[in-house]
């Protein structure tokens, strides 16, 4: 039954039970506490300091461990690949991935550190410090690196190298990792330790001075002077009279930093509240009960109601409603939580949008890979044609093909764009057809394309493989005159270019096989020309774009090149 109660009701019941237990236990414990308190002060102070030291050492160890493991990361090893010298885009992309991993580590770490990666062989630097430009300097690593944490400019720094033996000669290392964190992290932990305990912790170094908490008292100077006077061990404590007050001072040396964690507590001040609290306890209980009612009311208004609002918002978020936002006019912890909730919902929306953008980039990369296969395909055919015409002593055809080949590569390399206008494509195809007409003499062609379409863009070398197949497989095997017709039409941003020949044609089975091959992965038994054209159109313009085959009334094959104008708006 208790498990079915809401959090507020459980807290109320636990508060009542706790109050009853406090009344019972205090009467007994008060008699025993005075007797043992002096012995426990020293142990308690040392234990608290040990806990604090372990917490700091744990954070430092995590930073050190991450620094040593950086060299084994696959992204960093890939970043140093020598073949990326000619592919700067790939190296920038891998560098962005490395920076994203380092930022993710910072987001997951309790301490926000600055991670800087130096690549001596590449003379490049990657750092999580967005507000500083860090150039690579060869003189910076001319001396051996320290194997421990160093303190400089209000921050601690630590270096590691890959390989680890390169710390003596860091300029020969493949990777130098520098991890640094500001002193404010230690100050924040000192503040937290002081808030949770009754001491006044600080850090001390015989040569570098001290690092105190934000509210360090004047007694720190007296404690520091006392620490200079004694010979410090790895761990210990002593009693000292400072400013007419008796203090117990405990210290522990840091294995990582070389500094000492120091804490001191006034023994007399600790004992005095215990004696006076006995007299005030029962009077305080009455006040506590009255205040408990007020606290529970405030707790209901400040915690229970915002918590219910947060649960409702979370439920909406789980259903996919990422537009949900929480609003609270009060200024408390829940207002900060609501703000973080709103940021989280917004970032989820952004991540979803980024996924869509990444899918578009992947499609674009696939498109470029497919287009790159067309260029050698056409080049091989041209070179074989030149060879055959040279054997036949057909100098005119060789010259025409050589000029066309030169014009072709000028057409390919004069622009970085992957697209060409219909007019540019038709100019290239016209040159190609004139060469083939010279070679065959019995071949004729007609081009009928409206002027409104000439300015539209398609992937480069879209028409040439279709026309080439019409000549090689349709016109050339026949001894009669052949005719190729290229025409185009459009309607409602849907465009179609038709290539029709009067060649020997194909059977239904052959046409079906051609249609099926367009949808299969490319293999060595398939021609890559028309397959590439179809795949590039499909990846660029989406569903419905590509090639269609059908019989021609002229006896040959009719090929339709179809697409919707999505990229020319």
From TrEMBL:
It is a multi-pass membrane protein. It is found in: Cell membrane. SMART domains: HAMP. GO terms for molecular function: kinase activity. Pfam families: HAMP, HATPase_c, His_kinase. InterPro entries: Bact_2-comp_sensor_kinase (IPR050640), HAMP_dom (IPR003660), HATPase_C_sf (IPR036890), HATPase_dom (IPR003594), Sig_transdc_His_kin_internal (IPR010559). Residues 301-353 form the HAMP domain. The chain crosses the membrane at residues 7-28, 280-300. It comes from the Bacteria. Keywords: Cell membrane, Kinase, Membrane, Phosphoprotein, Transferase, Transmembrane, Transmembrane helix. This is Histidine kinase. It comes from Paenibacillus shunpengii.
């Amino acid at each position: 039954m208790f498990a079915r109660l809401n959090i507020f009701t459980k807290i109320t019941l636990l508060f009542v039970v706790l109050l009853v237990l406090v009344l019972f236990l205090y009467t007994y414990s008060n008699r025993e506490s005075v007797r043992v308190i002096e012995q426990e002060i020293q142990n308690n102070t040392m234990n608290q300091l040990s806990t604090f030291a372990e917490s700091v050492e744990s954070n430092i160890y995590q930073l050190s461990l991450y620094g040593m493991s950086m060299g084994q990361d696959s992204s960093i090893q890939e970043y140093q690949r020598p073949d990326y010298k000619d592919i700067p885009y790939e190296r920038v992309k891998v560098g962005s991935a490395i920076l994203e991993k380092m930022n993710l580590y910072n987001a997951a770490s309790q301490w926000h550190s600055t991670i800087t990666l130096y690549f001596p062989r590449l003379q490049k630097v990657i750092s999580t410090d967005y507000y500083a430009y860090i150039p690579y300097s060869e003189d910076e690593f001319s001396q051996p690196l320290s194997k421990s944490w160093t303190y400089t400019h209000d921050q601690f720094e630590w270096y590691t190298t890959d390989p680890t033996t390169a710390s003596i000669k860091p300029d020969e290392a493949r990777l130098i990792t520098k991890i640094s964190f500001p002193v404010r992290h230690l100050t924040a932990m000192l503040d937290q330790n002081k808030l949770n305990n009754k001491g006044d912790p600080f850090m001390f170094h015989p040569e570098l001075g001290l690092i105190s908490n934000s509210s360090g008292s004047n007694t720190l100077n007296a404690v520091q002077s006392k620490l200079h006077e004694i010979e410090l061990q790895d761990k210990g404590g002593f009693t000292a009279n400072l400013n007419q007050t008796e203090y117990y001072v405990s210290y522990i040396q840091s294995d990582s930093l070389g500094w000492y964690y120091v804490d001191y507590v006034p023994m007399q001040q600790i004992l005095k509240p215990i004696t006076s609290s006995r007299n005030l306890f029962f009077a305080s209980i009455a006040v506590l009960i009255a205040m408990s009612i007020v606290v529970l009311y405030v707790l209901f208004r400040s915690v229970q109601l915002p918590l219910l609002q947060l649960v409702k918002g979370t439920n909406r978020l789980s259903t996919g409603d990422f537009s949900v936002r929480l609003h609270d006019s009060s200024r408390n912890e829940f207002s900060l939580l609501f703000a973080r909730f709103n940021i989280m919902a917004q970032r989820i929306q952004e991540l979803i949008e980024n996924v869509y953008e990444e899918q578009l980039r992947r499609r674009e990369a696939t498109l470029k890979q497919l287009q790159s296969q067309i260029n050698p395909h056409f080049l091989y055919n041209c070179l074989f044609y030149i060879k055959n015409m040279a054997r036949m002593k057909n100098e005119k055809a060789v010259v025409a093909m050589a000029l066309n080949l030169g014009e072709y590569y000028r057409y390919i390399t004069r622009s970085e764009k992957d697209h060409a206008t219909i007019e540019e494509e038709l100019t290239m195809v016209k040159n190609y057809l004139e060469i083939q007409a010279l070679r065959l003499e019995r071949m004729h062609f007609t081009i009928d394309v409206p002027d409104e379409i000439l300015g539209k863009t398609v992937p480069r070398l879209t028409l040439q493989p279709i026309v080439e197949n019409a000549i090689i497989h349709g016109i050339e095997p026949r001894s009669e005159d052949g005719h190729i017709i290229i025409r185009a039409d459009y309607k409602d941003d849907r465009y179609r270019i038709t290539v029709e020949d009067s060649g020997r044609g194909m059977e239904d089975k052959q046409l079906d096989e051609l249609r099926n091959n367009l949808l299969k992965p490319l293999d060595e038994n398939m021609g890559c020309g028309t397959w590439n054209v179809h795949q590039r159109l499909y990846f660029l313009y989406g569903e419905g774009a590509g090639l269609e085959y059908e019989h021609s009334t002229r006896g040959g094959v009719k090929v339709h090149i179809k697409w919707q104008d999505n990229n020319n708006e």
